[in-house]
Amino acid sequence: MAFLSESTYFLILSIIACILLWGVSLFNGTVTALIVASWTGRFEDGTPFNTTYTGCFPLDFPISLLVAFFFYGTNGSHPGYQFFLIDAYATLQSAFVWLYAESTRPNEKPFGISNPIIWGLMWQAFGAAIALPLYFRAHLRWVDKVGDRLSSVDVAAARSLPASFIFGALLPAIIGMLPTWYPRSDVLHQNILAAWQPDPVWVSILQAIQVFVLSSRTRNNERAVWWTRLSYLLAALSSATGHIYGMGSILMSTDPAMTIIGVYVPFIFTGPDGAIQKLANGTWLFLQYDLIIISISCISWAYLLVLRTLPFNTWIRSYLLIILMSSSAVLGPGATVSLSLFWREGYLSTKRMSKPPRSPGLKVESLPPNQYVDVAIIGAGWYGLVAARTYLRVRPDVNLLIIDSDSTVGGVWSERRLYPNLVAQVNLGLFNYIDTPMSPEGMNDKRQVTGRMIHNYLQKYAEDHDLLSRIRFNTHVEKIERGPRGWRLRFRNSPDLLDAGKLMVGPGVTSIPNMPQYSPENVKVPIVHSRDLGESFTELQKNEYQHVMVVGAAKSAYDAVYLLLTMGKKVTWVIRPGGSGPLAILPSELLGFWTSIGVASTRLMTGLSPSILNTKGLVYSMFQNNQIGRWLAGKFWDTVAYLSDLHAGYDKGDHVAGLRPEVDGKSIFWANSGLGVVTLPDFWSTIHKGDVTIVRDELGVLNERTMSFKSGRSVESDFIVMCTGWGDHFAMFDDETKSKIGLPANAKVGDRDWKSIDREAEKSVDQKLPFLVKGPVLLNEQTTKSPSKYWRLYRRVVPIAHAKSGDRSLAILGQIHTVQTPLVASIQTFWAILYLEGELNLPGEDEMAKEIAEWNAWTRKRYISQGQKFPYSLYDFLPYVETLCKDLGVNSRRKSNFLAEYFSPYRPEDFSGIIDEYYAQKRLRSNEVKLNNVSDYSTLFDYSTLFAILLAGLGTLLVFANGA
């Protein structure tokens, strides 16, 4: 099906079924005859028809329709119809086992998979040819999502399944077919048919009762596979019996009307010859189409499931298809599918048992000296948590430890760093992992997520995935060096040592406070960094602190000033005249319609924001590769900057004018000093009305409570909050190690001449992205660019020196700055894990060096001061994610249509299931199967299935011989 996706294939089968079953039945009058008989209580040949079964018309009428539908096929009016119906229902009844077995696997399932009664009622009402392809479509999607984590069936459900099948599905069908062998009165037969029609309900009730009773008595989960396979064998036996009996009776019959073609092949509109009544030939024709599509869809489903279990090569795939088709002709499609599932369940069980047991993890309350772990992860924030969870998905047996200096999970969103009015700069639905939505509980009126919501989300994520037992809190990693078994970690104020085979470092940019330089003399004023504002909140509420000095121009400074003003404090806001100046701040909504982060998350933005990762395609050609497009892109950014300035009110003539970004136009585009988003509706009005004095000066001497600035001015305050950025969060590596692993360092170690590569990269960026050739005009003459820090990390993760030497023991996480951190974290960590595990092929050294140099050149030109310091990619997260997806071989275009692809915001949920897609693609890409020691075929097929295959081949020859 290379030319057609599986999902589309099954959907098309269902649509064709709708047309053939109901379109033809409407055309030839079958539907009308059913309605008339059920309404009048009499068939067209005068046979009386009982239409009252429960006394409730809304129930009786649909039951009457079904009784009328099956009456002439089960009352002995035409032997060919009878045998056909036996065959058809022998196939269909076995589907109960398939659906109920899959529904009771403990894995997380969509509603349709966990509630098979839906499909049973659907095929009773509309036809199994419509219902089953839709189920198979949903089931294969789920199987791909679950991947190798598919669990065995619940043992209580497995034990219940044989009896539920026999008494809820098989026995009612046999009783309903009894007139085939024994005559009975029309009224009795109609009543029996009426009792038979809700058999999906009978199966569900029987299954539920047995599971309830057995769940308290059943403990041996190892028997679940045995009971499940027994159910499949019972289904195969009953289906094969019905098929062989029905088809054998037709083949051995001397009646000229009893032929394979006459009984099974539909006559387009009129139905089979010899079925005189409209409700005989019309319903028979309906079921002929029904059985054909059921058979095709069932065999297709079984074929695709077997391929997912073992990715056979092309020759064996063809042979497998021939086997399934031959078996379907001889044993029937129901038996063929049941035997396929019987083999699959056994193989999956063997595969599960062959996996090493899951490591229980470390008891991290105390760490023995020289402890060894397979993987150490530094940081329990956005990146560290998803890295741990993903690693445990990829390698459930891994011995893994997370280390964090805080006392709770969350990093910047940890418990102690929360304070009132702390709100993220994004809306609900844009700030969560790809597979775990965030609860709306605690959301503000603008649908923005609060700090408390984020912390609770990460805490629950860690709890749900059993990560807390793997975290060592309150542990500061002081030194990391190469060790005898990979990496050796030393801790502050602890004699413990930890050796790790692999190391994932994601400490977070906001983990180490940076304190500005000043001369302290007899200081009598409390001083805290913005990191500790949450812990200091209660102290700040005291009346003795009326005048607070806030130092810095980062987003944390804006939040701190707003918080202090809402507390009624007087604020002196100190911003040094040098540096990159005040922050550029977006309104939360543009023109009152579109959320700012939502707009920044569209694919259209990848064209409006020149990115080195997006130098091909439609939007690049439109907006970056021609002069008119660049002019239009520039006007877009001018408009956004104008709307932002208007929203802030820089021109109102008050102190807020001192917060205008010091870039001549397009301040939102360049984000020279970073970018913020207004998170509260009264943010700017509070700043305008508040008692705020903005001072542009350098700190000098702090004597008791008075800060003397270098200009000679002095200000007295009661409390000082330093919002002055962050220090070296990689200080656990010495300079030599930093240089070797691609981190900014004073020491330069390595054999590569980066100067020439960097020069070529500058030229390449200028040629590909002319928009960036001429940078912004800085309005403040004192504004200085930060000294360039060179990050030599391929894809912002892999040290190039390690890649060159084949050392896959270290991955750097979370150093790329974007507007959708959790989404990027989900994809980047998976990419990094595959790299560490050797599953990801890297390009040559020269190609990696070029990628690194071009990124560095681009981010310095694109984001100016911020790009000098970090791998900044604020508006460009989508091209980055797309690049990683291409490396993984999975689809990065996740929207359903062209308009949504370019104009709808990309959300984390759009990438849900990408890990399972990767493994599904990996299985499908495998063209060869390593068949070791399979001379007796026991690895591929057990003996019962092999016997069925041989029988199918022999039977096919007999069928062809009989037909000839």
**Principal-axes shape call:** elongated
Give the strand tally: 24
Helix content: 40-55%
Q: Point out poorly predicted stretches.
A: 216-221, 354-366, 927-964
Distance between the termini: 32 Å
Q: What is the alpha-carbon Rg in Å?
A: 35 Å
Helix- and strand-based class? Answer: alpha/beta
Oligomer: single chain
Most strands sheet? 7 strands, mixed
Beta percentage is 5-15%
Main features:
34 helices; FAD/NAD(P)-binding domain; five-stranded parallel sheet; 964 residues; elongated; Putative flavin-containing monooxygenase 1; transmembrane; disordered C terminus; single chain; oxidoreductase; 10% strand; transmembrane helix; FAD; alpha/beta; seven-stranded mixed sheet
Overview of this structure, please?
The protein is of the alpha/beta class and 964 residues long. Among the domains are: 6-291, no CATH class; 513-579 and 686-725, FAD/NAD(P)-binding domain. Helix content is 50%, strand content 10%. It contains 34 helices and 24 strands. Strands 1, 2, 5, 6, 7, 8 and 24 form a seven-stranded mixed β-sheet that branches. Strand 11 (547-551), helix 19 (555-566) and strand 12 form a beta-alpha-beta unit. Helix 6 runs antiparallel to helix 10 (199-215) and helix 14 packs across helix 34 (943-963). The protein is elongated, with a radius of gyration of 35 Å. Mean pLDDT is 84; it is low at 216-221, 354-366 and 927-964.
Task: Sum this structure up briefly.
By secondary structure, the chain is α/β, with parallel strands linked by helices. The chain contains 34 helices and 24 strands.
